[in-house]
Design brief:
The chain is an alpha+beta fold. It is globular, with a radius of gyration of 21 Å. The chain has helices spanning about 5-10, 35-40, 50-65, 105-110, 120-125, 155-165, 210-220, 225, 235-240, 265-270, 275-280, and strands spanning about 15-20, 25-35, 75-80, 85-95, 100-105, 130-135, 140-145, 170-180, 180-190, 250-255, 255, 290, 295-300. It contains eleven helices and 13 strands. It has a six-stranded mixed beta sheet with strand order 7-6-3-4-5-11, with helices on one face.
């Protein structure tokens, strides 16, 4: 069986998400490859290499999970936090194709860890991972919190889906930095209950022959494939699943850096504070300066 012409040509480049469904296996997934958007987010701060890699991985995972939301105005927020780690806060969110992220860390303690610190070295004991789904159409919020454990942030997210959602999930991430900029790609596949492909929050058996088959194929994805600009996401999916009876792909919209900081937004937020509190916030020029951690910009508010 040969690949269709549009698969070989490839239609999905950087900063886009591709949806994947295997109806015969009761599985769904997402593939993503970030390029210029990733560079823009990382450039907001002078992150050292280990933190750049961690944030790049987190942004890909956030885009993969966030794009699962059927609510176009809904938001997915992923937060990893520790009380005394070298990294005490990592937060990313995804809403309608807009992606942003930020890492707060102790630069001096990070230097002492060497060039390739482990996830445990970065966050320490007692760290946790929280994933929050905010559904705009219903106003509902779902949140799951699990210990931040495993060899990588990706492994911790896989554990989240098993523990909090009871949905078998496999995630593969690749990150590359070179003279031409940052590239990061990812693949997520999930097993759903029989006959319920496309549903969002399902509880299924964790041992299932169909899932084991899909996981074996998806798990063969190589790091190089995820970051290869000459291999489209369509071609990658075809390479993995071309022997299946039916493979459905659905290109989604573009991904962009989505920091939502504006003077109007902060003015609205500050307006909710009592005048006495706002008076304490003002500087000598009578303005309140707000520092956005996501985009590293200062906003002077006449409050």
């Amino acid at each position: 069986m040969s690949a269709p012409e549009h698969i070989l040509a490839g239609e999905t480049g950087y900063d886009r998400v591709l949806g994947l469904t295997l109806p015969g296996r009761d599985a769904r997934g997402r593939a993503v490859r970030l390029g210029p958007t990733l560079d823009t987010i990382l450039s907001a701060h002078a992150y050292p290499p280990a933190i750049r890699h961690l944030l790049a991985e987190a942004l890909v995972v956030t885009a993969l999970i966030g794009s699962l939301l059927k609510d176009g105005d809904g938001q997915l927020t992923m937060q990893a936090q520790s009380s005394n780690g070298v990294v005490d806060l990592l937060v990313c969110d995804y809403r309608g194709g807009e992606l942003r992220g930020y890492v707060r860390h102790d630069a001096d303690r990070l230097t002492a860890l060497g060039p390739n610190p482990s996830l445990f070295a970065l966050f320490g004991a007692g760290a946790y991972l929280a994933i929050t789904f905010d559904l705009a159409t219903t106003g509902q919020r779902y949140q799951g919190i699990v210990p931040l454990e495993g060899g990588s942030l990706t492994e911790a997210c896989e554990a989240y889906f098993v523990q909090s959602e009871q949905v078998p999930t496999l995630i593969r991430i690749g990150v590359r930095f070179d003279g031409q900029g940052a590239v990061a790609g990812g693949l997520l596949v999930q097993h759903l209950a029989d006959g319920e492909v496309g549903r969002e929050r399902l509880h299924v058996r964790l041992d299932h022959a169909e899932w084991e088959h899909v996981a074996a194929l998806a798990g063969s994805t190589r790091h190089e494939e995820l970051v290869d600009p000459d291999l489209s996401l369509e071609a990658l999916i075809w390479r993995l699943f071309h022997d299946e009876s039916e493979v459905r792909v659905e290109p989604f919209g573009a991904i962009s850096r989505g920091c939502r900081c504006t003077i109007e937004h902060y003015d609205s937020v500050l307006g909710k504070f009592p005048e006495a509190d706002r008076a304490e916030m003002r500087n000598e020029a009578g303005k309140i300066v707000v520092d956005c951690a996501f985009c590293s910009k200062l906003f002077e508010i006449e409050a």
